[in-house]
Amino acid sequence: MIRNFNEVLKQVKENDIKTVAVAVAQDEPVLEAIKAAHQNEIANAILVGNEEEIKNIAKKIDLKLDDIEIIHEADTRKAAIKAVECVSSGKADMVMKGLVDTATFLRAVLNKEIGLRTGKLMSHVAVFEIPKFDRLIFVTDAAFNMYPELKEKIDIVNNAVTAAHAVGIETPKVAPICAVEVVNPNMPATLDAAALSQMNARGQIKGCIIDGPLATDNALSEEAAKHKKISSPVAGKADILLMPNIEAGNVMYKTLTYTADCKNGGLLVGAAAPVIVTSRADTYETKLNSIALAALVAELMKK
């Protein structure tokens, strides 16, 4: 099982090298990550966007373009579509957002003709390496689905489980996070958590262990779970934190990012190929980690 991002990067190098298509690639932080990915044999790249601007940035950051394909397209919308088409046509294994707004990028991803639709729900999976933990922690969904109901949460769990399997966690432990660890009819998230747990116990959701509702403390801390007399295969040992809504997920994501000394990466799962949607505020290291995670998910999807 992979326990940190150094091991993620090491595992990627043991697989066949993947290719990432970058939509509107004339973005310095993104090209910094592409440079590192290329130099460290994490991924090859196809850069789609304004060729002159890409070359100017590449010169500035000393990115060698000899082995990197550039597809010139000055129009942002068309560049996003061409990058996605590189994946749907088999030229690339994953697609990454560059200097383009998220809505335009996702419209290309979901394009009916050349997009990456599967009929399944797409969801964001964030992965954190936190110093006090001996494992990676997955947080979902912090960026894409706003107020998922039970049906959507099933897909969100399955997407996160796919990402966890990609990093070698054979049976990830999923904690549906709520404000309390008991079922309360007045708190819909606890009802969803109980339903997900029962569906998992009956084999309707496979490849993981789900138990909840659990509060964040007893999902992550065995001591807290013991103190509250919670007996559970997930309590204190959770790999995946299923957040009840986007507010909770976003707060968790940004709190970990800005207050804890941790590393992270993330991607959208549920499309026909991994989709990397990083924020302008994300560090180059986060972007590189996201490319590496996407490469592992792409490897799993090819099997």
Which helices and strands appear, and what pairs or packs with what?
Layout: H1 5-14, E1 18-23, H2 28-39, E2 43-49, H3 51-61, E3 69-72, H4 76-88, E4 94-97, H5 102-109, E5 123-129, E6 136-140, H6 150-166, E7 173-176, H7 188-201, E8 209-210, H8 216-220, H9 222-227, E9 240-242, H10 246-259, E10 263-269, E11 275-276, H11 284-302
Parallel strand pairs: 1-2, 1-4, 2-3, 4-11, 6-9, 7-8, 7-9
Antiparallel strand pairs: 5-6, 5-10
Helix pairs in contact: 1-11, 2-11, 4-5, 6-11
Question: Can you give a write-up of this model?
Answer:
- Residues 77-295 form the Phosphate acetyl/butaryl transferase domain.
- Belongs to the phosphate acetyltransferase and butyryltransferase family.
- It holds the Pfam family PTA_PTB.
- The protein is α/β, with parallel strands linked by helices and 303 residues long.
- The protein folds into two domains: 5-117 and 271-302, Rossmann fold (3-Layer(aba) Sandwich), CATH 3.40.50; 123-259, 3-Layer(aba) Sandwich (Isopropylmalate Dehydrogenase), CATH 3.40.718.10.
- Helix content is 43%, strand content 17%.
- The strands form two sheets. The protein has a six-stranded mixed β-sheet. The protein has a five-stranded parallel β-sheet with strand order 3-2-1-4-11, with helices on both faces.
- A hairpin with a 6-residue loop joins strand 5 and strand 6.
- Helix 2 (28-39) crosses helix 11 (284-302).
- The longest helix has 19 residues, at 284-302.
- The mean pLDDT is 96.
Radius of gyration: 19 Å
The span between the termini is 18 Å
Number of strands: 11
| Low-confidence residue ranges | none
Instruction: Count up the domains.
Output: 2
Percent of residues in β-strands: 15-25%
Mean pLDDT metric: 96
CATH class of the largest domain: Alpha Beta
The CATH topology of the largest domain comes to Rossmann fold
Structural class: alpha/beta
Assembly type of the chains comes to single chain
Helix fraction, binned, reads 40-55%
Question: What's the order of the H and E elements?
Answer: HEHEHEHEHEEHEHEHHEHEEH
Strand order of the largest sheet: 8-7-9-6-5-10
What's the story with the biggest beta sheet?
Answer: 6 strands, mixed
* DSSP helical segment count: 11
